[in-house]
Every structure is written in structure tokens, then in C-alpha cells.
Design brief:
With 204 residues, the protein is α/β, with parallel strands linked by helices. It has one domain: Alpha-Beta Barrel (TIM Barrel), CATH 3.20.20. It contains nine helices and eight strands. It has an eight-stranded parallel sheet. The chain is globular and about 45 Å long. The structure holds pyridoxal-5'-phosphate. Pyridoxal-5'-phosphate binds next to strand 8 and helix 9. The site of pyridoxal-5'-phosphate has 13 residues, from strand 8 and helix 9.
Length: 204
């Protein structure tokens, strides 16, 4: 079943220079093992503790495993996050940047941008993005791209387009955008990392 959806997603990605991050949050052990058996090695999780219980013991079994943190990160969890994850997609404030840099100065990070200006959503505002990026450059933390989650009730196109333009103006090569419902659109706008969960694994 995962193999069928994987085929569909892979054929959509074909021809684009983009990486599939299989979002494994809240999925069963059976499904995780099925995905690993199919050769998937790049996974996304949104909670540090849940990710530890799912992946810490599997790290030893799969040396080529790559884990991406795609959910909000509290500074008191940074140390654990830096031990487990290979990449953080949700950098959005100075305090967090300092904490990550302290524990893992080489950690590749995406700056999360709140393109829809939603008060309840994480991410730096478009207005403050350039200043925050400059702060990160001065600090020395490794910023590899921008990430966004468009508002649920909006067409994603303009958000993806804005993120692409802002990444280009900052000379950042990567765009983490596109989920189950809109990864095909995100690819058209230059996504380099698509984060797909339910479309791949089924309902959570
Ligand atoms: C859960 C989650 C996803 C995957 O969502 P699906 O709609 O199941 O593909 C992608 N990105 C983030 C930030 C998430 O929290």
C-alpha cells in the first residue's frame, strides 16, 4: 500500500530536483518498517520525544537514515533534537538559533516563514525575514533554505511563489514546501524538499 502511493509521489517528483521527506509522525511501527523495507531513509517528525521513541533504536540499524525536524522546537529540547536530527526546518527566532548553534554549529537549518501572517502559526514574518537571516549569518549558523506551511484556507500558489522569490533574493538554494495536498504545486514553484505524510502512509 505504501509502495503504491510511493510510486505515485515518485513519478510526480520525477524530472524535478527535489527530495521526498516521508513524514512518519503518528504512524504505526508496521508502516515505518514497510517504508524502510521499500528503501526509504529520509523521514520527517514534528515532535522531538515522539521521534526519539520511534527512531533512536533504528539509528543503529540504518546508518544512512536522515531525520528532519519539521515541527516547532522549544529551546529546552534543542540538545535532544540536535542529537537525533540531521536537519531542522523550523528555525524562526534568535534564541532558538543561538541554542542550536551552541549544541550543533554545523546543523543545516531552514528558516520557517509565516507567509500567511497567521497569528497562531510559527515562523518569522516576511517583514522580519531579511533581518533574521542576517542575524543567523552573523551568528554563523548554517542556513540552507526557507520553509513554509501555507494557510489551510488559502490557495498555496502565492505562498510558494513568495517563498521562492525570497529565497532567491537571499541566495538560499533550498525550499521546504509542499505536503500531501499540494506537493505537486510546490514542485512547480521550485520545492527542493517536499514533506509528505498521509498521502504516503495513509491517515494518521
Ligand atoms: C504533518 C506535517 C506534514 C505532512 O502532512 P501531510 O498532509 O500528512 O502530508 C508536513 N509538514 C509539516 C510541518 C507537518 O507538520
Amino acid at each position: 500500500m505504501i509502495s503504491d502511493s510511493l510510486k505515485i509521489i515518485r513519478s510526480a517528483v520525477d524530472g524535478f530536483d527535489a527530495q521526498l521527506i516521508a513524514v512518519s509522525k503518528q504512524q504505526s511501527d508496521e508502516k515505518i518498517n514497510e517504508a524502510l523495507d521499500l528503501g526509504l531513509r529520509t523521514f520527517g517528525e514534528n515532535r522531538v520525544q515522539e521521534a526519539q521513541s520511534r527512531w533512536a533504536h533504528r539509528r543503529d540499524l540504518y546508518s544512512d537514515l536522515k531525520l528532519h525536524l519539521i515541527g516547532p522546537l522549544q529551546t529546552n529540547k534543542v540538545k535532544d533534537a540536535c542529537t537525533l536530527f540531521n536537519c531542522i526546518h523550523t528555525l524562526d527566532r534568535e534564541k532558538l538559533a543561538r541554542a542550536i548553534y551552541k549544541h550543533a554549529p554545523d546543523m543545516p537549518c531552514f528558516i520557517q516563514v509565516n507567509t500567511g501572517n497567521e497569528p497562531q502559526k510559527a515562523g518569522i514574518s516576511l517583514e522580519n525575514l531579511d533581518n533574521f537571516h542576517q542575524f543567523c549569518v552573523d551568528l554563523g549558523i548554517k542556513i540552507i533554505g526557507l520553509m513554509c506551511i501555507p494557510p489551510l484556507d488559502d490557495r498555496p500558489d502565492s505562498h510558494f511563489k513568495t517563498l521562492e522569490e525570497r529565497a532567491r533574493s537571499l541566495n538560499l538554494p533550498n525550499l521546504s514546501m509542499g505536503m500531501s495536498g499540494d506537493y505537486d504545486i510546490a514542485l512547480e514553484y521550485g520545492a527542493t524538499h517536499i514533506r509528505v505524510g498521509s498521502k504516503l502512509f495513509g491517515k494518521r
